Amino acid sequence: MGRQHQTAPLLLILPAALLLLLGATITEARVLRRVNDRSLFDVTSACKKASYPDLCKSLAPSKSVGSLTGAAIDVATSKAKEAAAISAKLMNVPGTEKLVKSGLCDCRDTFSSAADSLQLAAKNLKDAAQYDLMQNLSAAMSLASTCSDTFEDWPDLVSPVADINDHLTKLVSNSLDLASTLKN
């Protein structure tokens, strides 16, 4: 009699344990599906939201819109630093006209400031500070366009940094477009 009494609770526990095991397996499958969905991030779809999709797609592979935005900001930062260095170098070329030197000086300063704003934007992205991220990217965009505006003030002058300035503006524009799609 005592032996039957011991197996009865065991028979009741066994179905409950199986239900728990089955529930854990279903939960694991859901988690794995979420992980796999993240690994299938579609850069092409995300880049459709950017002003310059082909330039955006060149930043692949990325695992999320956040990492794609970070890559765009990093490339823009490097380009802004490069533009500042080129502007400084061109200022010192013998025979450069005084007005061109003045314009290049303005460009060097605005490119350096744009790089600073982009570095802050990268920090904002890591800190998930969306408002500050958008502010710093907007500032970088404004600064990047300031160089071309400088040379437009003198129609007879051609900017020696027009191409790099154009590329930087596109990179910052894409960074801004991608950042605007991030959730707060």
UniProtKB/TrEMBL annotation:
Q: Where is the Pectinesterase inhibitor domain?
A: 38-178
Check the UniProt entry and state the signal peptide residues, or none: 1-29
Keyword Signal belongs to the record:
yes
Record keywords: Cell cycle included? no
- Gene3D superfamilies per the record? Invertase/pectin methylesterase inhibitor family protein
Pfam families for the chain: PMEI
What InterPro entries is this protein classified in? Invertase/methylesterase_inhib, Pectinesterase_inhib_dom, PME_Inhibitor
Which keywords describe this protein according to UniProt?
A: Signal
Q: Which CDD domains match?
A: PMEI-like_2
Q: Name one GO molecular function term.
A: enzyme inhibitor activity
Please report the name of this protein according to its UniProt entry.
Pectinesterase inhibitor domain-containing protein
Q: Which organism is it from?
A: Ensete ventricosum
